[in-house]
Specification:
Helices cover about 30% and strands about 25% of the residues. The chain has about 160 residues and is of the alpha/beta class. The protein has two domains: about 70 residues, Signal recognition particle alu RNA binding heterodimer, srp9/1, CATH 3.30.720.100; about 90 residues, 2,3-Dihydroxybiphenyl 1,2-Dioxygenase, domain 1. The strands form two sheets. A four-stranded mixed sheet has the order 1-4-3-2. Strands 5-8-7-6 form a four-stranded mixed sheet. A hairpin with a 2-residue loop joins strand 3 and strand 4. Helix 4 runs antiparallel to helix 5. The radius of gyration is 19 Å and the shape is elongated.
Length: about 160
């Protein structure tokens, strides 16, 4: 396993019993990723000795820690991972990969993967258009975004260019 350095602040993800599987999946989605240390439960743990307790991994420079903590806690959309994309191709690729195996689409560029973790797949173009000094233009873009599931850069640009 590669060495993944823990940062002072590291997102902590609680899984029932599939943290290692999820970490491997996430590393397969993002090109610049690596799997880190895998620790195992010892005697006296809540599950069978030798089963995976935790795993560290890195996605695009972000270190994450995943724990197999049992069924006590579940992910909610209140916390999501925000992926900023340069092109529609990048949006489409992440969207497809993260939905693979049972993920669920939401709206406005949000989805949850097969493990229940929420993601926002957001093109940089959206951020620029929403930042427009022209509040009417930004409003049209906001309305277009609200009507989308996966975000479409051409559709966002068309909304920005439309006349009131």
């Amino acid at each position: 396993m590669a060495k993944v350095t823990m940062k002072k602040i590291t997102p902590f993800l609680w899984f029932d019993d599939n943290a290692h599987e999820a970490a491997r999946f996430y590393c397969s989605v993002f090109e610049n990723s690596k799997l880190g240390e895998v620790s195992k439960w010892g005697e006296g743990g809540p599950v069978k000795k030798g089963s995976v307790k935790s795993v560290t991994f890195s996605l695009e420079g972000l270190t994450l820690f995943a724990l197999n903590g049992g069924p006590h806690f579940k992910f909610t959309p209140a916390v999501s991972l925000f992926v900023l994309c340069k092109t529609q191709q990048e949006v489409d690729d992440y969207w497809r990969k993260l939905l693979k195996g049972g993920g669920q689409e939401s709206q406005c560029g949000w989805l949850s993967d097969r493990y229940g973790l929420s993601w926002q797949i957001i093109p940089e173009t959206l951020m620029k258009l929403l930042d427009s000094k022209d509040s009417r233009k930004a409003g049209r873009v906001q309305q277009a975004m609200m009507g989308m599931v996966k975000l479409d850069i051409d559709g966002l640009k068309a909304a920005a260019a439309a006349r009131d």
